[in-house]
Amino acid sequence: MAENLFRYRVTIPYCEPTFVLHRGLPPEKVYYAEFNVVAKNETEAIERGLEIFKINARNSSVGWCREPEIKDIKVEKNKIFKILVVDDELALRKSLEIILKGEGYDVATAHGGEETIKMLRSHSFDLVTTCINMPGMNGLQLLKMIKKIFPDMPVIIITAYGTLATARSAIRFGTFDYLMKPFDTEELISAVRRALSKNNGNKTK
Length: 205
Known about the structure:
Elements: E1 6-14, H1 17-22, E2 31-39, H2 42-58, E3 74-79, E4 82-86, H3 90-102, E5 106-110, H4 113-122, E6 127-130, H5 139-149, E7 155-159, H6 164-173, E8 177-180, H7 185-199
Parallel strand pairs: 4-5, 4-6, 6-7, 7-8
Antiparallel strand pairs: 1-2, 1-3
């Protein structure tokens, strides 16, 4: 299984002597630069934070009065959520993948129900999105199976062929949300955020 990635906030203390002198402030006043980075661990996060910090320093007309010390750097970790996108149409899978990756999520895709169950059993995910009309196992059948095997896994149904009956069935089977295609991107992102917020900590495997 692929190694987990995490989102880190790296806070680096620094002084800007020319800047603070220009404003009449004490030259040793400490400021803080914050950078959001993606890394495997804290050590790598600090390295990446320092890389960005040094690039900014080189591009600054002010410059830094001294090199930051590792012991003074603060690191906060937030795990990157993993989402499994299920759709039998490649174009729609790619579209959802691009949108969700753009929001900072780790995204994997599956083209059908059987592949989805295999991936859920062998990898760790935080959320599944699926369409309804798929060959073989359809989206409602997949939803029922996911809820049977992984009852805490949030599932969002996204479909272009929805009816009141299928919406009622999806809700009865435990879908977190039910979106119609063509969906509004903000509506999708909002549903994903709410699902992950409610189920943070409930994982497959």
